[in-house]
Design goal:
about 85% helix, 5 helices, about 130 residues, mainly alpha, single chain
Length: about 130
């Protein structure tokens, strides 16, 4: 039975170390990324993964009991709550930020595509063919 305890110790410790390393990567992303949406993405992904790894490691340390069930429910709740809340905050940022075009390449590319589409429509209305 001693070998099983060693396996639990190694696996639980490895998961806790993985969770800690994910938290450190998250901190780096939060403090070194420039734009708020990038920071929010790093925080949301880091929290979800880091807490999940850490709690699963603690569940392995704890064994099969009522505390393990509570930690599993916390992991499930965080898997649902963290992405939804960060998505809602990101939508609020996209909706209310007037300077979004300065930070996102996608919007400038979309504007170029819209201009090309308008030019093609104008050419078609004049009797030209779409190339």
């Amino acid at each position: 039975m001693e070998i099983m305890e060693w396996i639990r110790l190694i696996v639980g410790g490895a998961l806790l170390l993985c969770g800690l390393s994910i938290f450190l990567i998250e901190l780096y992303g939060i403090f070194h990324l420039d734009y708020v949406l990038n920071r929010m993405h790093a925080a949301a992904m880091g929290d979800t993964l880091g807490i999940s790894f850490s709690l699963v490691g603690l569940m392995i340390f704890s064994g099969f009991n009522f505390t393990t069930l509570k930690m599993a429910l916390i992991v499930i709740f965080l898997w649902f709550a963290s992405p939804v809340s960060s998505h809602m905050l990101a939508r609020l940022e996209v909706t209310t930020n007037e300077n979004l075009k300065e930070h996102c390449k996608v919007y400038s590319e979309l504007e170029e595509l819209e201009k090309e589409l308008e030019e093609n429509r104008a050419d078609t209305e004049e009797g030209g063919e779409i190339v």
